[in-house]
Each structure stands twice: as C-alpha cells, then as structure tokens.
Design brief:
This protein is of the alpha+beta class. The chain is 44% helix and 9% strand. Strand 6 and strand 7 form a beta hairpin.
Length: 369
C-alpha cells in the first residue's frame, strides 16, 4: 500500500478491505487463510465494489478448499487441470467430427470463450458460483433458453475433458442450475387436404415425393435427404434409418404408399441417393423455404416451429388417430422415449371432438314431470 493511503475493513463483507489513496481513488483488497494456514492478502485489480471483492474472496476460498490452487500456493494433493479456453478449442475440434449438432452449436463455443469471467482460468479454478455469475451476465443479453444451452455446452466440455483425463477434478457446471422455462402451446399439425394443397404448389416431382414421404413416415428432413438406395429392402418393403438424430440405426416398415414413392425414385435416380437432383446430388438447403412458400401460395397456415417438422407432427397425430399405440409410434418415429410423440400429438380438431361429443345420448332438460 502506498504511503498516505488509508484503509478500513468493510462493515458488511468480512475479509474485505477498502483502500483510499491520496488522490481519492478507491481500491479493494481481500484477506483469508488457505487450508494449510498460509495467509493471503492482496488488492484485487479492476474490482469496483465491496460486494464484488467479497464474491472473488468466496471463489478463491472455495477453490482452495477443493485443492484447486495447489500449484499457486504450494498445497498438497495436486489436481490435474487444463485452461478452460484450451478445453473449448479441443472440444470444438472433436465436436466437428463427432456431433451432428456441431454447426448449430459452434457459435455457442465462441460466445463462452469470449466471456471475461473465464479468461485465463483453469477448469479447476472455475466454481459453481462463477457459473452462476456467467448466467447472470448473459441473461441481460439473451433469452433464458439460450443461457441454458450455453451452460449445457460448458457442462459437456468439462465432462469430455474429464473423460480424456485432461481434468481430474469435479465439473463445476454440474451444479449450475438452469432457468425454468414453461412449455408453450402444442405446435399443431396439418390435415390431409392441407398437405395435398402444399404438394400441389411444388413444381419438382422429387420434392413433391419428399413431402409425401415425410407425411407417410414422419421422418426428419435430414434423414430423408441422405436416404440411399442400398437402405431399401424391396422384399420386405422396409427401409433402414441410418445414423438418425437419436443415434439408433434401425430397420423400419413402410406403408405401401411410402414404399411406392421410394421405388419410383430409385428407378429415376442417377446416384446412390433415393431423392436427388438431376446431377445426382442430394438436396441440402432451402427445403424449409420451399415448404413455407408452397404453403403461402396454397393459403395454408403452417403450425409454429420448423416448417418441415410440421409433417412429423402431422404423422404422429394421424398415427394416434388411426389407433396406433404409443410404443408403435415411438419405435416407428425413432424416438428414445414417449415424451416427444405425446407432445407432438395434436389430437383431434374441434370439429372431430364435437362429432364424438354429439354421440352422447340426449336427454330433455326442458321436459317437465
């Protein structure tokens, strides 16, 4: 401390010191003891309040109690760790080759890396409190759902470092809570007439068949795009769903209409793919825009959410209405559990519900005894 400076202990925050130099500038210091008895007293650079100094003090004490500052303070029981920024880079390279969701998530890795809260820190120096502070900072800029996804990404990064032996401590993000987000309204579905109206507005016969195939099978657009001729079994009229979102490759039965679509496109295709362009390449982009534009021309209002996913929700609804049990819908839709098929089920529309209600035997409430 420079000569002429004055200091006082914080009345509200134990272990925090307020230092005022001769020019009137205020600095904040912290004071605590490590588990080995060593005393730590220091001024926190860039600290702007007693509260912030107290939070930093709490973080360092918690880290020391977990044996996470052994290298810095000479404690015993050293924990192997890795800088969090290096962990993000390693995970990013691994995810590019191993995660289907990589191109949706890679932006998230960059956001996390740019946070000043994690700058220069080893994973062993990150505490659940720091994770909560990251949440508090991000919620001022983005939605709760986005913050939750970023915390999940942090958790997955550290878990992978633990699996690779890069970090031998705990996962601090495992104890960081997620924001509770209430579910919105069910996304809704289409009726057969609306699907036909959309198909009628699409020029390409292959794209029309892709929509019809989605309607008959409930498949995601990603699986339809990469469907290959070798995946189809003409003897059983079944098809292999290879490496889907669920990760479970399986052979699925097709209805006759879906099988006819596959056989017709296999006959016309010039490549290994069932549905492809004239040059043999599969369709990779613009499919959601095609559905949106066709629906607009047809005067059909699409349910909320991803446009192509409306056919998956529609298929689920019609499967239930046709009498299929939940296990069959789950297996044919290639879901890992019953949650999504039950959520996607739009049930019956008001006209159909009213028809059932009107079957209740009538009584005369106006008749006098």
């Amino acid at each position: 401390m420079s000569s002429g400076a004055t200091q006082r202990r914080s009345r509200k925050y134990p272990g925090v010191t307020v230092i005022e130099n001769v020019s009137g500038a205020i600095s904040y210091g912290i004071d605590y003891r490590l588990p080995n008895g060593q005393r730590v007293r220091k001024i926190i650079q860039g600290c702007k309040s007693e509260k912030q100094a107290s939070q930093i003090r709490a973080i360092e004490i918690a880290a020391a109690s977990q044996g996470e500052l052994e290298k810095k303070y000479g404690l015993k029981g050293k924990i192997k760790s890795i800088p969090f920024h290096d962990a993000i880079d390693l995970y990013d390279k691994w995810a590019k080759d191993n995660k289907k969701s990589y191109y949706c998530e890679k932006y998230t890795y960059g956001i996390i890396k740019r946070s000043p809260l994690f700058k220069g820190k080893f994973i062993a120096e990150i505490t659940p409190l720091l994770g909560e502070q990251y949440k508090s900072a991000r919620i001022k800029e983005v939605s709760k759902n986005t913050v939750n996804k970023e915390i999940v990404a942090c958790r997955q990064i550290v878990e992978q470092m633990i699996a690779w032996g890069k970090h031998t401590g705990k996962n601090p993000f495992a104890e960081v809570s997620s924001y509770k987000i209430p579910k919105g309204k069910r996304p809704g579905s289409l009726n057969p007439q609306e699907v036909q109206a959309i198909i009628d507005q699409i020029r390409s016969p292959v794209k029309r068949d892709m929509v019809a195939f989605a309607y008959y099978t409930g498949w995601r657009i990603g699986s339809i795009r990469k469907l290959k001729k070798e995946d189809y079994n003409p003897e059983h009229r079944s098809i292999w769903l290879v490496d889907p979102k669920s990760g479970r490759t399986t052979e699925l039965a097709l209805c006759d209409a879906a099988a006819d679509i596959v056989e017709r496109n296999i006959k016309n295709s010039r490549s290994v793919f069932v549905f492809c362009k004239k040059n043999g390449e599969p369709y990779k982009t613009a499919m959601n825009a095609i559905i949106g534009n066709a629906a607009q021309r047809a005067g059909v209002t699409l349910p909320t959410g991803k446009k192509w996913h409306a056919f998956r929700r529609t298929w689920t609804t019609h499967m239930f209405k046709s009498g299929a049990d939940i296990s069959s819908v789950r297996d044919l839709g290639n879901w890992s559990d019953n949650t999504m098929p039950l959520w996607y089920n739009d049930g019956m529309r008001f006209e159909e519900q009213r028809e059932l209600l009107n079957r209740i035997p009538k009584i005369d409430s106006l008749k006098k005894s």
